[in-house]
Design brief:
Blueprint (H helix, E strand, L loop, with lengths): L6 E6 L1 E6 L5 H5 L1 H14 L7 E11 L3 E10 H9 L9 E9 L5 E6 L9 E2 L2 E2 L14 H13 L6 E3 L3 E6 L2 E10 L3 H13 L6 E7 L12 H9 L3 H4 L1
Helix pairs in contact: 2-3
């Protein structure tokens, strides 16, 4: 069970994530209220889509070696109700993959989400829900594939300019847990921003409206960010020594 006041950033060498069968009891017991809430929110945000998402039911840590997680399937409208009514069920967490992209100087690339989306106006490392495309027939979640897909869809970056660094950076922040995959670019900060900005400009319907760079430990008060993203920037470990 997570706590509102818990915030931690740490590295692990490996992750093992699995989807288990069975319903989310909270969603079943609140089905009527979820449907009412969804109709109102859909009217306010017509771009919302009630697809399948996955939430973290429990996890274990084996030191710095391994993070193991068990996920449940649910739908977006149930997740949205849970999130917007105070995270009432503390037995589950909002778990997702993030792309920790560093410029040649070591600054972190953040995307600002476009209006009409769930995190509109907020800056965060590219990433998103674990969805059915990220789950194999055996229920194993491909978090690497999930993050790489988000990088491609949101930034247009690829192996030409990115190199996978070792390990994972995990951020716990209340009901959220970000599993970040580190990537190092050989591009300078301005060149990296230019590369991604041109990609975003070519897709007016994309999820991001712009990108920014910020140095770890300097989470600017001028940037609106989710709690986990601010914690990650503030407490980002030295990846050269922790990978």
């Amino acid at each position: 069970m997570w706590r509102h006041d818990e915030t931690r950033v740490f590295t692990v060498e490996r992750v093992s994530l699995q989807v288990s069968e069975g319903p989310w009891a909270f969603a079943e017991s609140h089905a009527a209220d979820i449907n009412v809430h969804w109709q109102r929110r859909l009217h306010e945000s017509p771009n919302f889509f009630n697809g399948t998402v996955h939430i973290l039911a429990d996890y274990t840590l084996s030191g710095r070696a391994l993070l193991t997680g068990r996920f449940l399937r649910t739908d977006f409208k149930s997740f949205l109700y849970w999130r917007e009514t105070g995270w009432q069920d503390r037995s589950v967490m909002d778990a997702f993959g993030s792309a920790l992209i560093l410029s040649a100087e070591g600054d972190v690339l953040l995307g600002r989400q476009r209006a009409g989306n769930l995190n509109a106006g907020l800056c965060y490392p590219p990433g998103g829900f674990i969805d059915p495309r990220d789950v194999g027939p055996d229920g194993v979640i491909d978090i690497e594939g999930s993050v790489l897909r988000e990088i491609t869809e949101e930034t247009g970056l690829d192996a030409r300019v990115l190199r996978r660094s070792g390990g994972y950076v995990v951020t716990l922040a209340g009901p959220s847990i970000s599993i970040a995959v580190p990537w190092q670019s050989h591009l300078s900060g301005p060149a990296l921003l230019d590369e991604v900005s041109r990609f975003i400009a070519a897709d007016p319907d994309g999820e991001l409206s712009s990108v920014v760079l910020t140095a770890p430990g300097e989470a600017s008060a001028a940037l609106a960010m989710p709690d986990y993203a601010r914690a990650l920037l503030r407490d980002l470990p030295d990846l050269k020594t922790s990978a």
